[in-house]
Amino acid sequence: MKTGRTLQESDSSVFQPIGLALLAYGVLVGVLMFLWDFEPEPFDVQETARSVARSGPDIVTGDVTASTLIRVMRTLLEKRGGYLSNDIFPPGVLMDNIPRWEFGVITQSRDLVRAFRNDFARSQTQSTEDLDLIVADPQFHYDTESWILPASESEYRKGIDALERYLNRLSNVGKQDAQFYARADNLRDWLAVVEKRLGSLSQRLSASVGQLRINTDLQGDTAATQSTATPDMILVKTPWLEIDDVFYEARGSAWALVHFLKAVEIDFMQVLQKKNALVSLRQIIRELEETQAPVWSPIILNGTGFGFVTNHSLVMGSYISRANAAVIDLRNLLEQG
What is the pLDDT of residue 1? Predict the structure, then answer.
């Protein structure tokens, strides 16, 4: 009996430190998850331009938009907890809300850097592309979940470096090898992409409760065809486990877009005033700012449209949808003479 008690005491003395270590690790992971579940605060785009651009007391056309894109990408990488989308260890691998927020931000950033490369920095279709923007565009389109050889962060930083080189040349009034053309057609082309992004997010958010939708894929063109036949009525419903993912992706997308639109308001001020479109742009910003209100619920609720429990996705979808409608109106104003 004495030997048995000795063995039991020996076993308990071995497992007790292991148990305490696991408990401490679990508490540490929980604390870090709480601290890293954080969305950055908005920033002033004009102050950012003054601090990032090197054009002296007066900023040149394009400084605000370019510096805002740089600041947004830096925030993505340097916020509390850093970049989480490619984490393979706890707590990052256990989190999904902030990684989806990051995906929304990077999607809008990718669209804007491509607009820089294809439109803003080119005077016409036959003009040459800016060499630094040729680098920045594909770097921002790198895989969001690559954690090594190379890591996503390192590729995005290369894109930021290239964009900073472009901004330095743009801000140097003594050189003319970098340009930003604030024209109505350039702005309209970028807004066309924004319109599609917001339209897609609006549909995905609305599908949180499931909808039976009429197929309108080929409407408006009697000669239109598609690859495979689809039914006249389509049931669209977001899987239950993906509802919060879509919500936070939309929230991140709106956060980035608010900053980009505020920057565009400054750089395209003359164009917007001439087209009498400044109020329309500000209405889009106002709708998107409403999507950034604090979420007091610990989970994203998915009640029915007129049910007892709220539906966060439908509320978010309402703001996104109104912003999308305002973007359509803005593009129409810019198209008018």
Answer: 46
Which pLDDT tens digit goes with each residue over 232-245?
A: 677 677 777 788 99
Instruction: Indicate the SS3 state at residue 216.
Output: coil
Q: How many CB atoms lie within 10 A of CB 299?
A: 10
236 Cα distance to chain centroid: 24
Alpha-carbon gap, residue 71 to 55, rounded angstroms = 17
Contacts of 101 (CB under 8 A, 6+ apart): 39, 248, 249, 251, 252, 255
- Neighbouring C-beta atoms of residue 76, cutoff 10 Å: 22
Chain segment 28-62, per-residue pLDDT in tens:
888 888 888 889 999 999 999 988 766 556 789 99
Query: DSSP class of residue 234?
Result: E
**Which pTM value belongs to this model?**
0.90
Tell me the CA distances in angstroms from 56 to 6, 50, 226, 265, 270, one per residue in order. 79, 8, 54, 21, 21
What does the radius of gyration of the chain's CA atoms come to, in whole angstroms? 24
**Helix 45-52 with 243-267: angle, nearest 10 deg:** 70
Q: Are 105 and 72 in contact (CB under 8 A)?
A: yes
Domain boundaries, the chain: 39-217+241-335
